[in-house]
Design goal:
- The chain has helices at residues 2-12, 26-37, 41-57, and strands at 15-16, 21-22.
- By secondary structure, it is mainly alpha-helical.
- β1 (15-16) and β2 form a beta hairpin.
- The protein is globular.
- It starts with a helix and ends in an 11-residue tail after the last helix.
Length: 68
Amino acid sequence: MPRARELMRELSRYYDPVLGGAILEVRHQRAIVEAIEAGRAQEARALIQERYDLYVRDRAHLGRGEEA
């Protein structure tokens, strides 16, 4: 758990200029840590994947030239 909390804290320091906020907001951190603490690893993974998908989706047009 200490490592998970450390990782959540580290991710919260990164700013997402496209979405205009932290890459991982406090509410997301809390939900992920609570899921891990409760032994719901699949739920924690799903929450992380959801945030990752959102981050990637909003950047899908970057670096693709005419394909965007």
